[in-house]
Design goal:
By secondary structure, the chain is an alpha+beta fold. Helix content is 44%, strand content 12%. The longest helix is centred in the C-terminal third of the chain and has 28 residues, at 293-320. It is globular, with a radius of gyration of 20 Å.
């Protein structure tokens, strides 16, 4: 069904003026629904990637629980522009949190957050600090979510040990004959596999606690206002129990890169230590009081871990024939893998300085 037909299934206010594709996410398909009247809000309509998020009712329930909890906290703090500070799900005419169309596609809607900026790449340390604070605040605010644990929407999402095992199986199967092109990358990643099982092992041994974490902390999942101050954290699909270093780690992997996540020119890719410091400072400013000393020690490692894991995930998808991530060219996942490997090498070179910055906070 078309986005226009779907929009009429949701309880929106106003008259639809136009619907356009929106954003640069790699997983869901997103549209902006613009209404004619100034007094009515605009909306954000999404096709949920059902291949990846298989249990849409539980996914919807997780997001509702988290956004209700954040809203309550913001209300208690007397914040006045709450609709810009937390995602607001919009229900269907039947009062459901999603709409399943005749073709089996799942759709959902949020209020569109106006005057917000979301960047694929950062340009200054103030933004890095804001990114760190945004995810730190998010973590602090969800840390006392009442009730049952959130539903594990993608079990083992950042379980690097599991990702490595799946990757090994994929390499053995070589389903579309691409392995011959990527031997060097596979070797690089396999040489490091033991090192990156560490966080899951620390968790199993009870050395670090499981918390509710965001788990997809790309910088374009933070909305900033016109002065680059934090508005809110979006893309809540993967909010689940996990470890704290996943969030700051992925934020640094994605945000503190001198190049792009899929930069074809590897000379442009490296860790930007100023942005790295901005993320760490911002994050610790918000979480210092809640983190255990052992958790604090994992933060710098989180950046390497999530970069390593992302290289494994992109290469796994390349070897599999590109079934997971949206791609723009046949080699896109390979280009992404190489950029992540280059970033990881740069982090390895700067490892002492990365740790020192955390210790100094
Ligand atoms: P994906 O899972 O595909 O990354 P997102 O939920 O992150 O999808 O949405 C894609 C992009 O749309 C975001 O990066 C952001 O730029 C924009 N976006 C998402 N939700 C909103 C919203 N409620 N208001 C304004 N922009 C939004
Ligand atoms: C996906 O949805 P998006 O584009 O924010 C992915 C992340 C990856 C990222 C890499 C659910 O994020 O885990 O780190 O792409 N999300 C999911 O760009 O797999
Ligand atoms: Mg996103």
């Amino acid at each position: 069904m078309t986005p226009e037909q779907i929009t009429s299934q949701f309880a929106i206010k106003g008259t639809v003026e136009g619907i356009k594709p929106f954003g640069t996410g790699l997983i869901n398909t997103t549209y902006k629904v613009k209404t004619q009247e100034d007094e009515h809000p605009n909306y954000l309509l999404q096709i949920i990637n059902h291949q990846i998020f298989q249990n849409v009712p539980e996914l919807t329930r997780n997001i509702k629980r988290v956004t209700d909890h954040l809203r309550e906290k913001l209300e208690a703090q007397g914040i006045d522009d709450i609709d810009r500070r937390v995602l607001t799900p919009v229900e269907t005419l039947e009062g459901e949190g999603f709409y399943k169309d005749a073709e089996g596609q799942y759709w959902r809607m949020f209020l569109f957050i106006e005057g917000a900026r979301s960047y694929d790449q950062l340009t200054n340390t103030k933004q890095a600090n804001a990114g760190g604070r945004a995810f730190g605040q998010f973590q602090r605010m969800v840390s006392d979510l009442p009730g049952d644990p959130l539903y594990p929407i993608i079990p083992g999402f950042h379980n690097t040990e599991m990702r490595i095992n799946n990757f090994k199986e994929r390499v053995e199967k070589d389903p579309v004959g691409r392995l011959k092109e990527v031997k060097e990358e596979v070797d690089f990643l396999m040489e490091r596999s033991e090192e990156y099982k560490k966080i899951v092992q620390m968790g199993k041994e009870g050395k670090i606690p499981e918390r509710i974490v965001h788990q997809d902390t790309k910088f374009n999942n933070v909305l900033l206002d016109e002065n680059d101050e934090v508005l809110c954290v979006i893309d809540l699909d993967t909010v689940m129990p996990g470890y704290v270093c996943y969030d700051i780690g992925d934020a640094i992997r994605n945000g503190a890169n001198t190049g792009k996540e899929d930069d074809p020119d590897l000379d442009r890719v490296s860790i930007n230590m100023d942005l790295y410091e901005g993320f760490i400072k911002g994050f610790l400013q918000e979480t210092k009081e809640i983190l255990t000393p052992a958790e604090k020690e994992t933060l710098a490692f989180g950046a390497k871990l999530l970069t390593y894991e992302q290289a494994v995930r992109f290469l796994d998808d390349y070897i599999d024939g590109d079934n997971y991530y949206k791609t723009e060219s046949p080699k896109h996942n390979l280009i992404r893998t190489r950029a992540q490997i280059k970033l990881l090498k740069s982090m390895e070179e700067n490892w002492d300085a990365m740790q020192k910055i955390v210790e100094q906070q």
